[in-house]
Design goal:
By secondary structure, the chain is α/β, with parallel strands linked by helices. The protein has helices at residues 2-23, 29-34, 49-58, 78-83, 85-88, 103-106, 115-131, 156-173, 181-185, 206-220, and strands spanning 43-47, 68-72, 96-99, 135-139, 178-179. 35% of the residues are buried.
């Protein structure tokens, strides 16, 4: 009996560690601890590789001070963002949070896509932020004709359009600023990102991020 209980406890512990790894709770732990706790007007941007690439490679200068703080993790879906929202957003005492998610949900990065679940995750993040008196800015999913790492997703533009319409409607109904990155970056074909703004059809280049920064500054002003 003792061996069975020990085995169950070990299994539960292993599952706990696996869950923590999936959520990437340690990814920004050190950087979070280093941030001053009393920074005024701090804006945290939470998201996936689009946010991570923005701060780590494309334009780190935009994040050179502690006003704009990027908390993007490559490959993450909105469920993972929600699970680390308290550690990577609330604990940083920001004035504003910018929530950018949905691309990897549609790209099936962590299983089947369900728009209701993805939208619900975004709403939950908004509710947590507001409960902690953090202002919210919502953004559209960026345009993409397809996801090269997921060729089986053949209807990405339609799913992006549907989710974006839902986020926009929610933002308007709840008096939340909404940044329409999709319209600013979409090509003439109405589905893909402008070739000047991307090299892989999904992640912006510096030129694309510069457009995004201008819209972001207007939204948080």
């Amino acid at each position: 009996m003792k061996k069975i209980l020990a085995g169950l406890l070990l299994s539960m512990f292993s599952l706990s560690l696996a869950a923590q790894d999936v959520v990437h709770l340690e990814r920004y732990a050190e950087r979070n601890a280093e941030l001053p706790s009393n920074a005024r007007g701090r804006v945290v941007i939470i998201g996936d590789s689009i946010v991570e690439g923005w701060s780590e490679r494309a334009h780190p200068g935009f994040f050179h001070n502690t006003r704009f703080v990027a908390r993007g993790i490559s490959g993450e879906v909105t469920a993972q963002m929600l699970l680390r929202f308290r550690a990577d957003v609330v604990a940083l005492n920001p004035k504003t949070v910018v929530i950018m998610g949905g691309t990897n949900d549609i790209a099936l990065n962590l299983g089947a896509y369900n728009e209701d679940y993805t939208f619900g995750n975004i709403v939950s993040m908004v509710e947590i932020a507001r409960a902690n008196r953090i202002k919210v800015v919502l953004t559209s999913v960026l345009p993409a004709a397809a996801y090269r790492w997921r060729p089986e997703v053949t209807d990405a533009p339609a799913k992006i359009a549907s989710l974006n319409a839902r986020i926009r409607a929610y933002a308007e109904a709840n008096h939340i600023p909404y940044i329409d990155y999709w319209s600013a970056l979409v090509a003439e074909d109405g589905v893909s990102m402008k070739s000047d703004y991307t090299s892989d059809g999904v992640h912006p280049l510096l030129a694309g991020y510069m457009v995004m920064e201008e819209l972001l500054l207007l939204a948080v002003k």
